Amino acid sequence: IHSFCKKDDHNKENLFNSLNYDVAAKKRKKDLLNNKTKIQYFHQEKWIYVHKGSTKERHGYCTLGEAFNRLDFSSAILDSRRFNYVVRLLELIAKSQLTSLSGIAQKNYMNILEKVVQKVLEDQQNIRLIRELLQTLYTSLCTLVQRVGKSVLVGNINMWVHRMESILHWQQQLNNIQITRPAFKGTTFTDLPLCLQLNIMQRLSDGRDLVSLGQVAPDLQVLSEDRLLWKKLCQYHFTDRQIRKRLILSDKGQLDWKKMYFKLIRCYPRKEQYGDTLQLCRHCHILSWKGTDHPCTANNPETCSTSLSPQDFINLFRF
């Protein structure tokens, strides 16, 4: 009898282990299928329907965090035409909209920011732009972390402190960048005729770039002080009315356009221009990057698209 009971317990144990194994195997298979479905769904639809209320077909409304997760910003930062657009959007979110993101969207935000920093460290371009972004984000987080307990940030406080430490580490990495001179010894910028140098400098839209360029060589310093250059820069970014309110005369009694420019940027926002932007279809209210296919029912979808600036994108989700 004792031997039989012992054998019976052994069979029960084997049966129990077998059932557990089958349940676990089915669960792993189900999770795998669900994960594959989610990944395929996420990569297939790189657009989002923007709705601001509940309907019979859709419950609730579209949020900023949902749009941020769905619009494939990770790939957008690899495109030089979209890079500045995404960085500006990250900066605006860091200033005032960080608490509007869900927990997943906040995590996605930090992951994209890390990829942006790594890209800048590799190609050594747009360093100042990312420094300003990191400083803006760090300042905002310092303010938000002090208000812990009032539901302003999603997640544990230690996680956000760790993220702030990562931001400081990225800032240090950017500060330690040493720009390497190219090995190519052909025609340089200073070898070009003065008219071409001035023509190229007129294409720069940031006055700080002009100042930096003027510090490279004495000849470029003279060109970077050209009054017509700074006048065109002021007229590009600001209206005549704004310029008339901030007139500054030099010692010679002439308008000092350079000083006026730096005074104007402290008072008014500069004009923003991007190679590629997010677009909203006025017919079907779908938001996507230019060139992204979406299920539009209009006869001519291209005529229905409206380009959105980074600020317009954020304003789209203010209800």
Automatic annotation (TrEMBL):
Major subcellular location class: cytoplasm
Q: In which pathway does it act?
A: Protein modification; protein ubiquitination
Q: Where does this one sit in the cell?
A: Cytoplasm; Nucleus
Q: Which InterPro entries match?
A: F-box-like_dom_sf (IPR036047), FBX25/32 (IPR040394)
Purpose:
Substrate recognition component of a SCF (SKP1-CUL1-F-box protein) E3 ubiquitin-protein ligase complex which mediates the ubiquitination and subsequent proteasomal degradation of target proteins. Probably recognizes and binds to phosphorylated target proteins during skeletal muscle atrophy. Recognizes TERF1.
Q: How does it assemble?
A: Part of the SCF (SKP1-CUL1-F-box) E3 ubiquitin-protein ligase complex SCF(FBXO32) formed of CUL1, SKP1, RBX1 and FBXO32.
PANTHER family in alphabetical order: F-BOX ONLY PROTEIN 32, LD30288P
Descriptive protein name: F-box only protein 32
Organism of derivation: Chordeiles acutipennis (Lesser nighthawk)
